[in-house]
Amino acid sequence: MTDAGRQAFERAYSYEIVPKGSLMEEIIKKHNMELRPELYK
């Protein structure tokens, strides 16, 4: 991804870095497993 593309993406979508081992990481992981179980076999 180019710098311009990365900057456009960062402006378009809000995000935050989730610390490993945090409760939020577990919630996200569970949600992702429900959406795409084939990735977690």
UniProtKB/TrEMBL annotation:
It comes from the Bacteria. This is Uncharacterized protein.
